């Protein structure tokens, strides 16, 4: 296990360091930081493993805390994900906790956990996004230390005032996994979607993937994929001037005739009948 370099070696010393991830395929193997870490998912889900707990799913509107020098590994569920990571100098928490009003948080920084976000925290995140989008880069960088302080203080308040979320049971983990699989299918309709390729993305055997998907949704993965293709294709036919071939390709089908068969099966009409003016 490798320890990452200190997060606070920059031209100007600060007690906070914020990083944003907006990508696909995010994964970091086992490691530890010399600072506390607050993980804030913004889109998609993250799988977090720590030295004291099994892998847990950290979803949007949740925050996770990992203490300094605490081994952990993080991996995003397949598909697009976005999260923010706020690193906090442990000496700041230790020495300034009482003065800054988050002593209860400072007293429990030796444990990890997951908590639900608050309306205040969601508002701070929206303010961060608005300033980043609308302010000049130099102006945003000047505001960033203040935003980081607001983020930390509200996260500390949430952790100090709320009980940590109980570990997700196996049935709940399965439901979250199937939800991520559905999202992956919706976001990758133009790809070669089949049980083998999806199973490879989620590290599931064909048999296990088939079983849990059917159990959670009461339909097969193939039926869900085809129904999603039909729904998306119908929206494209009604809302754009794309040809039937272009629509077929957009939802991952090389054959317009196969798309027509799916339309008949799921909607009772063909693509051309759906597009006819009424």
Write up what this structure looks like:
The chain is α+β, with helices and mostly antiparallel strands. The chain is 49% helix and 21% strand. The protein is built from eleven helices and ten strands. 25% of the residues are buried.
Secondary-structure blueprint of this entry?
Layout lengths: L1 E2 L12 E9 L2 E6 L3 E8 L2 E5 L2 E6 L3 E5 L5 E5 L3 E9 L1 H11 L2 H4 L6 E4 L2 H16 L2 H25 L8 H18 L7 H8 L3 H12 L3 H19 L4 H7 L5 H11 L4 H5 L3
Parallel strand pairs: 1-3
Antiparallel strand pairs: 2-9, 3-8, 4-7, 4-9, 5-6, 5-8, 7-10
Structural class: alpha+beta
Mean pLDDT: 83
Q: What distance separates the N and C termini? A: 65 Å
Low-pLDDT runs of 5+ residues are none
Summarize the amount of helix as a percent range. 40-55%
Percent strand: 15-25%
Provide the spatial order of strands within the biggest beta sheet. Answer: 1-3-8-5-6
Helix count equals 11
Shape: elongated
Attribute tags:
278 residues, alpha+beta, five-stranded mixed sheet
Condensed summary:
By secondary structure, the chain is of the alpha+beta class. The chain contains eleven helices and ten strands. It has helices spanning 90-100, 103-106, 119-134, 137-161, 170-187, 195-202, 206-217, 221-239, 244-250, 256-266, 271-275; strands at 2-3, 16-24, 27-32, 36-43, 46-50, 53-58, 62-66, 72-76, 80-88, 113-116.
């Amino acid at each position: 296990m490798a320890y990452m370099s200190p997060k606070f070696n920059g031209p100007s010393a600060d007690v906070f360091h914020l990083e944003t991830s907006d990508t696909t395929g995010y994964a970091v193997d086992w490691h530890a930081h010399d600072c506390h870490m607050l993980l804030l998912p913004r889109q998609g889900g993250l799988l977090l493993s720590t030295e004291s707990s099994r892998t847990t799913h950290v979803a949007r509107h949740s925050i996770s805390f990992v203490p300094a020098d605490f081994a952990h590994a993080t991996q995003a569920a397949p598909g697009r994900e976005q999260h923010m990571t706020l690193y906090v100098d442990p000496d700041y928490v230790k020495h300034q906790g009482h003065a800054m009003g988050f002593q209860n948080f400072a007293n429990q920084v030796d444990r990890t956990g997951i908590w639900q976000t608050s309306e205040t925290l969601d508002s701070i995140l929206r303010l961060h996004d608005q300033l980043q989008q609308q302010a000049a880069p130099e102006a945003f960088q000047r505001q960033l230390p203040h935003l980081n302080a607001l983020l930390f203080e509200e996260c500390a308040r949430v952790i100090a005032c709320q009980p940590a979320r109980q570990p997700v049971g196996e049935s709940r983990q399965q439901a979250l996994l199937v939800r991520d699989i559905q999202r992956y299918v919706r976001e990758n309709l133009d790809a070669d979607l089949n049980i083998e390729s999806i199973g490879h993305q989620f590290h599931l055997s064909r048999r296990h993937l088939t079983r849990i998907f059917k159990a959670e949704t009461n339909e097969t993965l193939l039926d869900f994929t085809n129904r999603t293709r039909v729904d998306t294709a119908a929206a494209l036919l009604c809302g754009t001037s794309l040809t039937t071939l272009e629509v077929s390709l957009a939802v991952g089908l090389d054959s317009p005739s196969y798309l027509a068969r799916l339309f008949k099966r799921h909607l009772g009409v063909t693509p051309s009948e759906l597009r006819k003016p009424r």
